Amino acid sequence: MRRIAIYGKGGIGKSTTSSNISDALAEKGLRVMQIGCDPKADSTRLLTGNDKPVTVLDVMRAGDEPELKDIVHEGRHGVLCVECGGPKPGMGCAGRGIIAAFEQLERLDAMSEYNPDVIIYDVLGDVVCGGFAMPIRNGYARDVFVVTSGEMMSLYAANNISEAVNGFRRDGYARFDGLIQNSRNVKDEDDVVRRAAEEMGTEVVYRVPRSPVVQSCEDQRMTVVSGAPDSEQADEYRRLAQILYDKSENVSGGMRLGDDDGCSCDCGN
Asked: How many Å apart are CA 228 and CA 214, to the nearest integer?
């Protein structure tokens, strides 16, 4: 089982990238699960076509005893889609919500039930507090990639994430495998991202070119792999998916909780 976390600053295109990677791997016949770790719950909408999915926290807040069928929804090419969700705006800690959702998935033994070949964790990377660090801190993900561009703030976030991953690596958790450049066509972008990767002690594993096909497919709530399967952009995502699959480590087991499951931000949880 490959367990891959894809981080990135909000708005950088990590969910679009994650969904196309998931779709491309599932298209090859692999059993893929994508878990959205963002309170906006928009990670899997291109896979399901649903802008308002039922999240793990939605079900928990309803007071019902969740079943896997309530929180795992099948998307394109059979991708298993999960959205952790989050609190109502201004009403709680999103990081703590991710922790609660992960605990619920483990309680329901989701990994044993579905036995995926690949798990993609799509994680908001503006902050790396306890909840958002959950995939790398508690042994869920094994390999971490960061989506960035040549823009300063996305590279700043990428550097923070790399520092967090390398810190947890000393405890035997996830490893930082490199940057995915989601090109924005800014000045000297390839060189800027390459130099940033060198400073982080890593590499640019792939450069996804900017293309209007992406927005066209998003307008239809579809991935490029499914919405424009014969396009060059779809092939770009297929190549990226294969590279990530080959670079990631095949490990046994799925989710597990570590010793420290609290949120380390200042919310008090």
From this structure: 9
Longest dimension (CA), the chain: 53
pLDDT in tens, 165-216: 888 776 778 899 999 999 999 999 999 999 999 999 999 999 999 999 999 9
Please pick, among 14, 23, 58, 177, the residue that the annotation labels catalytic.
14
Distances (CA, A) of 51 to 24, 37, 41, 222: 21, 15, 8, 11
CA distance 70 to 54: 8
Catalytic annotation present for 9: yes
Which of 49-83 are b and which e, b meaning 16 or more Cβ less than 10 Å from the residue's Cβ? Answer: ebeebebbbbbbeeeeebeeeebbbebbbebbbbb
Contact 144, 154 (CB under 8 A): no
Residues in the chain: 269
> Is 187 a known active-site residue?
no
Cross-strand pairs, 143: 4, 175
The one-letter code for the residue type at 123 is: V
Q: Which of 40, 42, 117, 261 is catalytic?
A: 40
> For the whole model, what pTM was predicted?
0.92
- Residue 221 φ/ψ, nearest 5 degrees: 55, 45
- Quick check: is 126 catalytic? yes
> Which one of 70, 126, 235, 261 is the catalytic residue?
126
